[in-house]
Amino acid sequence: MSRLMGPPDKFLPSEWKHANQVHFRSSEAERVHSERLAAECQRLIEESNKYTRHMQQDAQKRLEQRIQDIRFWRQELEKKFEEMVQEIEMLVIFKSRVEKALESCSEPLQVTLQCLTEREKRVAIDLVHDEVEEELLKEKEVIEGVMVLLQRTLEQINEQIRLIRSVKYYLEKDLQDKFQAERIDDFCSLLTNTSPDLNGGNSNFTSVGIAVTPEEWENLCNLNISKAEKEKNNSLSLRALVASLLEQTAADMRRQYEATGRAFELRIQETKTAKTQLENQLNGLLAEIANQEKNLEALKVAIAEKEAPLKVAQTRLSARSQRPNVELCHDPAQIQLLAEVKELANHIKRLAEALELSEMELKALVSRQLSLEEEIQVKTNSLYIDEVVCHQLRQPVVIHNF
């Protein structure tokens, strides 16, 4: 116990020195390690700052480059979008022209059909399949063909409008996406380390941007623009075709309408000429009927005038047949009286035959007169239909350029 409570043992000077050396070396090593660590941390800080600045600068450049890319494609898309809007407006104008052209075909077609119907009212020999009817049937065929062609063209224009509107929809959608993307990237490019309201948000960004690569993104833009360009070219071709079609169809209808008009004029002139000739024939026939009637009266008078001399001769012969005996002589007087009776009877017979022939001829002339008057009436009816009715129907019709 006394040992335990006694004074502590004393170290040797060598031990003291050794302990001091140990503390010195340990402290020095710790200081050197600390200095190295501090230098490494400083280097790490500087490297981290440099890397951060470099990464931020690179990210800023890439954001700016991306913004430029978006703006470039947005401008290209806007250009195509405006072209699609203008093309739709032009197609709508052409659609309106085609619709008006279709409407304007209705009146000429109805007039043509009415003319065909009216000309069915011609009678007798004038109900003929003439050049006018052929031209009217051609006119009907041309107008109906034009209407079918215009209807088909209208369907093509509607389909082209639908296709361009579809392209316009996708362009507009792409533009909206790019506008939003540009707004977001503009916001990102303006952010700095001292910007307010910074927040880390969701730290899991591994899935962002994987769905579409920049090449695919650019290809999609190109695809939309290519579709727009294709539909624009199709629309331009269609508009050129429609313009040519409208001009050609109007020219075809006008040409046929004029051809029908010329056929009407020629037919009217032919009918007038025939009617004039018939009227001249009728006038001559009426004069001949008057002459024949006079001839009949003359024959009747001549026959009547021969009856008295015949009766005189016959009475003389009858009286001389009463002469007695030898006085009943066949003398020259008897011979003359017999000859006179015979000749007068013969003349009366011939005059009666002539009268009968004249009466038959008069009946034939009267019958021919009725026939001519009927034919003139037929021509008058035909002229009324062609020159009055059809002319009034066709006069208001004007084939304008569509």
TrEMBL record:
GO biological process: cilium assembly; cilium movement involved in cell motility
Example of a GO cellular component annotation carried by this entry: nucleus
Coiled-coil segments on the chain, per record: 268-302, 341-368
Main location: cytoplasm
Keyword Protein biosynthesis: no
Location of this chain's protein in the cell: Cytoplasm, Cytoskeleton, Cilium axoneme; Cytoplasm, Cytoskeleton, Flagellum axoneme
Keywords: Cell projection, Cilium, Coiled coil, Cytoplasm, Cytoskeleton, Flagellum
Family affiliation: Belongs to the tektin family.
Subunit structure: Microtubule inner protein component of sperm flagellar doublet microtubules.
Known role: Microtubule inner protein (MIP) part of the dynein-decorated doublet microtubules (DMTs) in cilia and flagellar axoneme. Forms filamentous polymers in the walls of ciliary and flagellar microtubules.
Protein name: Tektin
Protein species of origin: Culter alburnus
